[in-house]
Amino acid sequence: MYSMWMAELAARAGCSVPTVKYYLREGLLHPGEATGATRARYDETHLQRLRLIRALTEVGGLRLETVHQVLDDIAHASSWHEAVGSAHTRLPGPFDDEAPPSAESAARVEAMLERQEWQLAPGHPQARRIARALDVLDGLGHPVSDRLLDLYAAALRPLAAYEVHAVHDVGPDGEPDVEPSVEAAVVGTLLQEPILLAIRRIAQENVSRRLAED
Amino acid sequence: MYSMWMAELAARAGCSVPTVKYYLREGLLHPGEATGATRARYDETHLQRLRLIRALTEVGGLRLETVHQVLDDIAHASSWHEAVGSAHTRLPGPFDDEAPPSAESAARVEAMLERQEWQLAPGHPQARRIARALDVLDGLGHPVSDRLLDLYAAALRPLAAYEVHAVHDVGPDGEPDVEPSVEAAVVGTLLQEPILLAIRRIAQENVSRRLAED
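Predict the joint structure of the above. Result:
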């Protein structure tokens, strides 16, 4: 396997040598192969891990502490589903540090989940985030209707099925290889979000353009 | 019209009096009705504006400078479509300060836009963000297929049509009132994003749960 010194590893990953040393000390990066008392060689697995950490922090906006927890979830998962669930629970979002949502908004989210026959893991922050967003938008005089929630759910349901099956089938012979496919799921959830949001904005502008031209 | 002193305005908006004074000085908040040399009364329009600023900064993650620009776009728009386009261009996203995307990814995004018959305003950052995301995901060994891009576009196209028509029809007698409907469009674009992303995560987890149970 191709191997390299730390300076080359850092350069190829686009980070500094002190950053690599820091990740090694913190256990975010696995040790290289020692070639003496103070030197070690690193390989593509180290480069891949550094790129993943960088993407999760810089693109995904995760704090390093959260990256550490998510990578631990991935490494120690006993099942694919469990790992995805716990990783999703750790991914940050707006409203996490705020007051609870109103009972009315919480009930509207519960009703939407029931209409979709969706269940949520205990302590799952997503329902709370949706309910708080409904409260904020209500307070601004731009309420979100139940119909729009259902449209979101209907649009995202087949997408989610495609996305999950795509990463679930990564392993050989139909037996998914837990670690890489969980990594793919977490990376996909978090790093594909900017793509989804950018396409939504483009789609909205094009509807708006058509309306302006009519 | 119900009116209030600054202390009540600040309390109802959930911010401090110095913050209100700062927004007044910066022109983010319009002056109240003077009742003496140093005192003024404020009304619901001030409260609404403060809630909007707070939502755009705290939920939308916009810097105050961007909020100012977006609010100026809304106030000075000559047409609804123009205002939405320029506001969208200002909304921040990942990759904005980075190197340009690879020619290959840029071409893939162009091809997707052509397949959808979508056009983009010049200088529009969304296509660049998508192409950079494709590069990052490629580098991580989790490439995004053209098929997934098309699925995103197909899922978001009818949603965008519903969303844009909903805010476009706000004005009386079919003649949209530019300021409120642009505000609704910007608020909707930015503040509904957490809802969309949370529903996507819930949908993914439920697909994953079904797979685990099978």
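The mean pLDDT of chain B is 85.
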